[in-house]
Amino acid sequence: MAENSVISFLANRSHGGLQEDAISNRIEKGVFALADGFGSGVVGSHAARIAVDSISSFLVRNSGDLDATLPFVIRRYFSLSGNMAFNALIHANRELLAKNKTVSLTDAGGASAIAALLDDDFLAIASVGVCSARLLRGTQPPVLLNRPRSYQQLRSPSEFCGLDVQDRAHLDVPLMALGIHEHFEPEVFELQVQRGDWILLHSDGLSPGLLEVIQRVYQQQSEGTLEEVQSRLAAMFESQMRQQAPSDHLACTILRIGELKP
Q1: How far apart are CA 208 and CA 146, in angstroms?
Q2: Which of 113, 249, 133, 153 is nearest to 200 (CA)?
Q3: Given pLDDT bands bounded at 50, 70 and 90, which one contains residue 160?
Q4: CB 236: neighbour CB atoms within 10 A?
Q5: Strand, coil or helix: 97
Q6: pLDDT tens digits, residue range 68-99?
Q7: What domains, with CATH codes, occur in the chain?
Q8: Residue 193 per-residue DSSP state
Q9: In sequence order, what are the beta bridge partners of 35?
Q10: I need a surface site. Which of 46, 151, 200, 255 has the fewest CB within 10 A?
Q11: What pTM was computed for the model?
């Protein structure tokens, strides 16, 4: 594994065929963004695309610039990279809010989102809503790096009965998301990565079965080239997605950490 590489998947089983997730990767800049949109019709799809494009452009424009003036807020307990990722979500939120002001309430959309900024061996992640980040390292089980924040609203307790964890996830509503309100607080996590780590960014459509697939391929990654690993993952993803609920859609990015600078 000579250098960092990235593998991304978008999957959709909804009857309408709308993909409400979006991904943007700029591996040469160490910039990664993923969003899960919501809203009527195509609104969720557009919201997700605005979110990842805004995050990506902000980070590409400002990352690595020690003299950059961040436009919104500084949290002194975060690193420069952590503040960059934090502000990228604030920027994306304002972009979505501005778009929503030009349309009717029924055409306004929002998005859960996650932004990652990799600077050599230092990774900063900022998230809002129900998108997640996980670390795969060695023989350890996948470690959840952030805490997706949502609540579950039930019209009747009977709706909850007999539902497993995966099915209950469809009742989740983000506590905070882009495009809803000007004031919100992204969650930030900072991590020193190691050669061989996999960083997994994903929307809430990732089932335990799909996570097991990724972990299995991770443990076997030495048995093939990047293209072979990607092909193996794609085939196993497709097989698992056929077993998912008809409404499922998923965005997933796998960042594979290669050689680090001495």
Answers
A1: 17
A2: 133
A3: very low
A4: 17
A5: helix
A6: 666 678 888 899 999 999 999 999 999 999 99
A7: 5-256 (3.60.40.10)
A8: -
A9: 22, 113
A10: 151
A11: 0.84
